[in-house]
Write a structure and sequence with these properties.
Elements (H helix, E strand, L loop, with lengths): L13 H12 L3 H14 L4 E7 L5 E6 L9 H5 L10 H5 L10 H8 L1 E7 L6 E5 L7 E3 L4 E7 L6 H4 L5 H18 L4 E6 L2 E6 L4 H9 L1 H4 L2 E8 L2 E8 L11 E5 L2 E2 L3 H11 L11 E6 L5 E2 L10 E2 L2 H21 L8
Parallel strand pairs: 1-7, 11-13
Antiparallel strand pairs: 1-2, 2-6, 3-4, 3-6, 4-5, 7-8, 9-10, 10-13, 11-12, 14-15
This protein binds adenosine-5'-diphosphate and magnesium ion.
Length: 341
């Protein structure tokens, strides 16, 4: 191998920085779907439509009815490190939105063809911008809210495109993301279509109904309600009975301050609580939401924010373990079977 050519140190161009970041922020179509859904929720939407083509690689179009983006702000929405969600370190430590890094749209726009169309409540019509933050904003049409249309993901980064799996696999990951987000927000309606066919459609409703729709009737008829407080911690949701356990760990949903997470501390606490009632080769199903003061948890561990760090992870572990264990103990003390939810 020839040695790399020696070059002087140079600042990277903006576009290239975003393309490098895109490898972390949006490593596959489902990560784009996650970022766009989080933006729609942060905008206060109550109705969200997700349209995918060819596993999301050809097209991801998400329409919401949220507060929208003013025309003069549209370029900023696509600019790197531009956000309406935090303005100071103080805000970062008390973040109560799903996004805050201000890099998702810029990253996506650097590796796909993006059109952002938006109309705020007071605007007489919508406006749109296509391409990047350098493009011109033009009048458009559409209802109040925002549509972001992402086409030909990674068309300009073939190395990354090669890592994509089959259309069905990529679609499966996208659908998983929609479901895990929809599960936490029964107060929002979601619809998901793939290649023109509606796959999922959930109306606004109760948590009980949404979780039955997403986890199935088996879970709905074999789950225990949990709702406990201790100081700054609250846990609520459903723990599935052993009869709702699965051979695969695909019925496990844990949220921290509304954010789906896969956290070792939390998973261990739940697992330990099930120890006495579940065989080692079975996986419990659950939908649990832990809410706590945002200052007690750091969500800024990784761009995808799927990992979190608790200030006092021992206290969180104990709290979750005991809450789930208490719920499970109640049924074995009385009788097995379904419990009113
Ligand atoms: P972040 O979500 O971290 O702020 P993004 O790059 O995802 O960064 O979005 C940049 C900004 O664009 C957001 O801060 C928000 O103000 C605006 N924005 C993005 N999507 C939407 C949407 N669906 N509705 C309203 N505003 C949006
Ligand atoms: Mg965002």
């Amino acid at each position: 191998n020839a040695p790399a050519p020696h070059r002087p140190i140079q600042a990277l161009p903006d576009q290239l920085i975003s393309q490098i970041a895109a490898g972390e922020v949006v490593e596959r179509p489902s990560a784009v779907v996650k970022e766009l859904l989080e933006n729609a929720l942060d905008a206060g939407s109550t109705q969200i439509t997700v349209r995918l083509e060819e596993g999301g690689v050809k097209r991801i179009a998400i329409t919401d009815n949220g507060r929208g983006i003013a025309p003069e702000q549209l370029p900023l929405a696509l600019a790197r490190h531009a956000t309406s969600k935090i303005a100071s370190l103080d805000d970062l430590e008390n973040v109560n939105t799903l996004g805050f890094r201000g890099e998702a749209l810029a990253s996506i726009a650097s590796v796909a063809a993006v059109t952002l169309t938006s109309r705020t409540a007071d605007a007489p019509h919508a406006w749109e911008i296509t391409g990047s933050h350098l493009a011109t904003v033009t009048p458009s049409s559409g209802a109040h809210g925002t549509t972001i249309d992402v086409r030909d993901l990674y068309f300009n980064t073939p190395a990354r495109r090669k890592f994509l799996k089959s259309e069905q696999t990529e679609f499966g990951h996208c659908a998983d993301v929609v479901r895990r987000i929809a599960l936490a927000r029964p107060d929002v309606s979601f619809s998901l279509s793939h290649n023109g066919k509606t796959v999922d459609h959930w109306m606004v409703g109760e948590m009980a109904k949404r979780s039955a729709q997403i986890l199935g009737d088996n879970f709905a008829s074999a789950r225990l309600s949990i709702d406990e407080n201790a100081g700054p911690l609250r846990i609520h949701g459903y723990a599935g009975l052993p009869t709702a356990s699965k051979a695969r760990a695909d019925g496990q949903f844990f949220y921290v301050n509304g954010r789906f997470v896969r956290d070792k501390v939390l998973m261990h606490a739940v697992r330990a609580a099930y120890e006495d009632v579940l065989h080692g080769d079975r996986f419990p199903s659950y939908v649990l939401a832990l809410d706590l003061d945002p200052a007690l948890v750091d969500v800024n561990v990784h761009p995808s924010k799927i990992e979190v760090r608790f200030r006092d992870s021992r206290a969180v572990h104990q709290f979750v373990f005991h809450a789930v264990q208490r719920a499970l103990a109640q049924t074995s003390a009385t009788s097995h079977g379904s419990v009113p939810s």
